[in-house]
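Lab manual, section 2.4: Encoding a predicted structure.

Procedure: take the sequence of the chain (214 residues), apply the prediction step described in section 2.3, and record the output as structure tokens. A sample record is shown.
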Amino acid sequence: MKNAVVLFSGGLDSTTVLYYALSKKYKCYCLLFNYRQKHRKELQSAIKIADLLKVEFEVINLNLPWSKDALTDKNKKIPEHKKIASFIPTTYVPGRNTLFLSFGLSYAECMSADVIFIGANALDFSGYPDCRPQFIDAYNNLVKSLGLKIKVMAPLIHKTKAQIIKLGTKLKVPYQLTWSCYKGLKEPCGKCDSCKLRLKGFKEAKLDDPAIKK
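Recorded output:
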């Protein structure tokens, strides 16, 4: 069995990627990140799902005191755009995926892993520059420059949210346990970019979101 590191947030995309990696017979080691985001709902979901699957995981605590993004700065409100922004929104955390992949690379070397899986997506997404194919390609080149045979894989990067949900449904992903909302409310707000993309995906997939109580 091959080893893989999965960057796991507990959201829709990363949970689908974790189930995808397991379906490919990888022994998965998950990295979860607490980067001082305003709420812990997603992290709690990740722990619950990892426990359900009985996969090993580590929680990495990060502090980015210089970051002024809306996900970590308590003085900034989560934006509610009428349409998904064509510009980089304030919810973008500068350098986040670069940091996550760097921890993933260190972990992969120590665990003799062949692959680092990340749930990056560049179709139905918020426009984050570190979720684009160019970024993943560049990071793979960095890994090659170190003489390593580890590969960063983003199997969802060219899929729409509806395609991701259809794949996850086939893999029996428990979407009712995932959390996508940028706000830490009791229920998803339905207004932030992440909620809108998720709603759009389930609508286009012609499925009900099991995380939404009727």
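Check your result against the sample. Strands lie at 2-7, 26-34, 56-61, 115-117, 151-153.
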